[in-house]
Amino acid sequence: MTTDDLRRNSDNFCYRHPDRQSFVLCQRCLRTICPECQTPAAVGVICPECLRDQQKAASPAQRKAERRWSRPRAVTLSDSRPIVTYSIIAITAFTYLLTLIPGGLGASIQESLLFFAPTLYPELTGRFEPWRLVTAALVHGGFWHLGLNMLALWMIGRSLEPLLGRWRFLTLYVLSALGGSVAVALLSFLTPVVGASGAIFGLFGALLVIGRHIGANITGIVIVLGINLVIGFVPGFNVSWQAHIGGLLTGLLVAFILTRTRAPRQRTAQILLLAGVFAVLVALLLVPLLVPSIVLR
């Protein structure tokens, strides 16, 4: 067939625009249509007339779904940088530098920030310093203690913070640190503790729940978490296993709430549930007052 034959054949031109040559067919009526007349369908393209027939035959539910999903949506480019993770690392490192100030000032700063359960009960020590429940996560016993905790935070935070969002990630970290301190108050009342281990174990727990929720392979996380838990019970390591357990359980609970209240309409429920976790942790601090034997541990 010659070029002139192709030009003379009306089947090679759009049926709606006879002056436009095309070799694309409507998948329903098989008529030739030009790019302007093509509407993408599930398979191939269809012409305007077939599109109208299809819309007329659609059920009310189908028309409603089409209107819902065909609405133009605003696209926002979220900043995925783990700003909260970097900020926590910077603040923790700065606090460590403050504790190195000579002349007794550094030791005084560390003493005022580390967690010591009796300082929550004025009837025992004459002091009420509730900030220690969280600020203990900023204080560390040495460079390697600081370095290992911040390395773990950096590794986990870079992946977890973009998944949760900055405020949820910060809430998870703070509640996990608080949970670790509460566990120390209940299980080792007279032991002064420092370090971000409780918060770090909370992040590990959140990784387990979220990884399971999205179907990721969490075997590696389970192994690393298990090794770190066992180390806490080995004599000579001087590790607060109580803070590890408390932070881990809190992180598991917070992550469970976050994964079950992801929809925008559940935001209020999410906030209330997280506030409930905070309230429960605070309420547990009343246990040493009700059970005096805990104070003697």
Written account of the structure:
With 297 residues, this protein is mostly helical. It folds into two domains: 62 residues, no CATH class; 214 residues, Up-down Bundle (Rhomboid-like fold), CATH 1.20.1540.10. It is 59% helix and 1% strand. The protein is built from 14 helices and two strands, in the order H-E-E-H-H-H-H-H-H-H-H-H-H-H-H-H. A two-stranded antiparallel ribbon has the order 1-2. A hairpin with a 4-residue loop joins strand 1 and strand 2. Helix 4 runs antiparallel to helix 8 and helix 8 runs parallel beside helix 10. The chain is elongated and about 100 Å long. The termini are far apart. About 2% of the residues have low confidence.
Summary of the model, kept short:
The chain has helices spanning 3-8, 48-57, 60-69, 83-98, 105-113, 122-125, 132-135, 143-164, 166-187, 197-214, 219-231, 241-260, 267-284, 287-290, and strands at residues 39-40, 45-46. The chain is mainly α and 297 residues long. The chain folds into 2 domains: 3-64, no CATH class; 83-296, Rhomboid-like fold, CATH 1.20.1540.10.
CATH topology of the largest domain: Rhomboid-like fold
Q: Work out the strand percent.
A: under 5%
Total strands: the figure is 2
Structural class: mainly alpha
Strands of the biggest beta sheet: in what spatial order?
1-2
DSSP helical segment count: 14
Q: CATH class of the largest domain, please? A: Mainly Alpha
Tell me the major beta sheet: 2 strands, antiparallel
- Output the radius of gyration: 31 Å
Determine the mean pLDDT.
85
Low-pLDDT ranges: 72-78
